[in-house]
Amino acid sequence: MTAKAGFIGTGRMASAMIRGAISSGALAPEDIIASNVHADSRERAARELGIRVVEDPREVASEADVVFLAVKPGQIPEVFSGGDLGLGPSKILVSIAAGVTTDSLRSYVPDAKILRVMPNICSTVSASATGFCRSEGMTDEDVAKARVVLDAVGLCFEFREKDMDAVSSIVGCAPAFMFMAIDAIADGGVRMGLPRDKSIMLAAQAMLGSAKTVLESGQHPAVLKDGVCSPGGSTIEGVEVLEAYSFRSALAEAVKACTERNRELGS
Ligand SMILES: NC(=O)c1ccc[n+]([C@@H]2O[C@H](COP(=O)([O-])OP(=O)(O)OC[C@H]3O[C@@H](n4cnc5c(N)ncnc54)[C@H](OP(=O)(O)O)[C@@H]3O)[C@@H](O)[C@H]2O)c1
After folding, report:
1. Are 123 and 71 in the same domain?
2. CATH number of the domain encompassing residue 120
3. pLDDT tier, 100 (very low <50, low <70, confident <90, very high otherwise)
4. DSSP-derived secondary structure letter, 169
5. Over 70: is that where the pLDDT of 1 sits?
6. Where are the beta strands (DSSP E) in the chain?
7. pLDDT tens digits, residue range 169-199?
8. How confident is the model over 110-137, as a mean pLDDT?
9. Site to substitute for ligand 1 among 75, 108, 156, most atoms within 8 A of C-beta
10. 22, 85, 194, 255: which could join 61 in a potential S-S bond, CB 3.0 to 4.6 Å?
11. Which of 62, 114, 60, 125 is nearest to 92 (CA)?
């Protein structure tokens, strides 16, 4: 990459994205600079990620062309308490802060281009589902600079800003639903006499394989489900049980609840 990437904050999401970008080969450790206000966190991030970690976010803003803002939403005012960090018009601020709009970020960085991004923790294994929206005036070339990291850590799609709360509910929250599903299916296996560890691995691999099939075949998931249900077979029996327990509407309602909560948190 021609541009260096910077991260303000070295917590769970920043670390996941840095690990994903390095392990996919998109960035070398020396292409990355990060900052953290706490000395022990700086020392840990430098040791675990193999990158340079400094105290002053201005150093990150000055060295990196693309700067990821990876602190909690409530920590953003502290990051900018000393001013706009010197992020000029040639710089791109990529905020991953949930619920924080490009308009509210504009007050901190009047000149920089802003990309609002929602990645997820699966970035660590380069399997994030990521949604983003761009601030006014950003060109495709600007967006491409940030996508070097975003594409390296998973699948990435652009949305309108007004859709970002719904995007966040799938990207940020749905992994918890998927972990619950794996755990529950594994419980079912244990109930039927399978060892716990193998039952979890089989359930996780069934989910991974199903997701890959949806993404790679381009077929509608309902068509793929029908393909697994042979007439009079065992799968349709299980599908009937899931319908009786409102499995599909429970998941859709969960996405709605998360979106509404994201809206509340953002307002
Ligand atoms: N976790 C997720 O699954 C997820 C998914 C999508 C988006 N996000 C978004 O990602 C952002 C970070 O979340 P997270 O889960 O990674 O939180 P986190 O683990 O708490 O990370 C926050 C990081 O910011 C550091 N920090 C705090 N104040 C700072 C300051 N003034 N200057 C520089 N660094 C500072 C913290 O340092 P210490 O560790 O020393 O306190 C920590 O390294 C949030 O805005 C969240 O909405 C998270």
Report:
1. yes
2. 3.40.50.720
3. very high
4. I
5. no
6. 5-8, 32-35, 52-54, 66-69, 92-95, 113-118, 128-134, 154-158
7. 999 999 999 999 999 999 999 999 999 999 9
8. 93
9. 75
10. 85
11. 114
Question: What CATH number corresponds to the domain at position 182?
Answer: 1.10.3730.10
pLDDT at 3: 52
- Report the number of distinct structural domains present in the chain: 2
Measured in Å, residue 128 CA sits from the centre of ligand 1 at: 17
Could you tell me if 36 and 9 are in contact, meaning their C-beta atoms sit under 8 angstroms apart?
yes
Q: Measured in angstroms, how far is the CA atom of residue 142 from the centroid of ligand 1?
A: 24
pLDDT of residue 66: 96
Which atom of ligand 1 lies at the shortest distance from residue 40's CA?
40
Same domain, 14 and 109: yes
15 CA from centroid of ligand 1 (Å): 10
Q: Which domain holds residue 236?
A: 167-266
For tokens 């309108």, the residue is 160
**Atom in ligand 1 nearest the alpha carbon of residue 78:** 31
